[in-house]
Amino acid sequence: MKWAVGGFFAAGVPVEKTRLQIIEMLTFPRLMALDSMELDGCPHEGQFEADSSRCKTCEYMYECTWLKSNEPFLALASSPVDELLNALRFAIDYVDSQNHRSGVARTFCVCKNCSWINSAKLLLKSTEGRSEIVHSD
After folding, report:
1. DSSP state of 7
2. For residues 73 and 90, what is the distance between their CA atoms, to the nearest angstrom?
3. What is the pLDDT of residues 88-122, one digit of tens each?
4. Which of 112, 70, 107 is nearest to 95 (CA)?
5. I want to staple 46 with a disulfide (CB 3.0 to 4.6 A). Which of 15, 35, 39, 119 is the partner?
6. Helix axes 81-97, 112-127, angle to 10 degrees
7. Could you say which DSSP state residue 5 is in?
8. What is the pTM of this model?
9. How many CB atoms neighbour CB 15 within 10 A?
10. How many CA atoms lie within 13 A of 40 on its CB side?
11. How far is CA 26 from CA 5, 60, 77, 95, 127, in A?
12. Do the beta carbons of residue 96 and residue 124 sit within 8 Å?
């Protein structure tokens, strides 16, 4: 298990727990993306193929690329925290793009999307810029 200086970062959370929090946070947008994709006609069954011209022009290209790069979940456990943070940033943008509210309205909304965005941003803010977290791998 890898630890920051003293084993914890400023908020008192072990690095490995932070990694698990980020991975858990990625569950909601993954399920949202999978649920929104209509893959009946997909010859790759939702698995993005970089060499496929069909994948490169598909309306779900970004979702498939992101889902494939974070598959399987077990591989995320060994991913560097900075890669997980990048995935979380993408997920925040994705959920935000699917959201019905923006800006101040989202801060006070309690729907699943807004609540997830607020929680994800809080986790991102508490983790970003902490060299002992981001560069602990």
Report:
1. G
2. 16
3. 998 999 898 887 766 666 667 888 988 999 999 99
4. 112
5. 39
6. 150
7. G
8. 0.70
9. 22
10. 1
11. 26, 18, 12, 11, 15
12. no
